[in-house]
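Help needed: design a sequence for this.
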């Protein structure tokens, strides 16, 4: 039984390694919106921001890629001195090629949050994360451009008795570069 487990494990690892790719992602968060801040108010304006991430993908047939990813979004700062939180979603990702170089993207996972510098916030907790969008491959499939809508749940722990939770929405333009690719099909 032990030999069977080892052989199966090594077969899976070699198959994944044979058809894996690694992508570096740099994003521009064009629009960001928080449903509620730490005091229970709706922030009036959140400034655009940026993100950096990494995805490890496996090919399944010629039209589907799936894998794991992580991305870090910088702090959600806004008008009137608002200082929010940064987020780091960890997610499963799927990319389905629909026509030529165009593909659909779906993500699902958990977003971790880190409190910003606001004086009344003790901490921030993340929550469920989801995203969908469309992408296009360029330059022999080494470079991708993606437009993505992301939404994640969060909760603020304040110095006051109440805890505020809400949703964080982001529209991103993402540039990705394949650092490493094996057996692209």
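Sure. Designed sequence:
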């Amino acid at each position: 039984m032990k030999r069977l487990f080892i052989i199966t494990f090594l077969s899976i690892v070699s198959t994944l390694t044979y058809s894996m790719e690694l992508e570096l992602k740099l994003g521009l968060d064009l629009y960001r919106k928080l449903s509620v801040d730490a005091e229970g108010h709706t922030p009036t304006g959140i400034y655009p921001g940026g993100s950096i991430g990494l995805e490890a993908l496996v090919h399944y047939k010629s039209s589907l890629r799936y894998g794991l990813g992580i991305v870090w979004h910088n702090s959600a700062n806004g008008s009137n001195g608002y200082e929010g939180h940064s987020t780091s979603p960890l997610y499963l990702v799927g990319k389905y090629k629909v026509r030529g170089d165009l593909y659909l993207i779906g993500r699902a996972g958990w977003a971790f949050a880190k409190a910003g510098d606001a004086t009344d916030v003790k901490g921030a907790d993340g929550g469920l994360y989801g995203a969908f969008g469309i992408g296009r491959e360029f330059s022999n499939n080494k470079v991708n451009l993606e437009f993505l809508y992301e939404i994640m749940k969060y909760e603020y722990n304040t110095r006051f008795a109440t805890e505020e939770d809400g949703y964080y929405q982001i529209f991103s333009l993402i540039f990705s570069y394949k650092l490493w690719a094996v057996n692209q099909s």
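The domain at 2-181 is CATH 2.40.160.20 (Porin).
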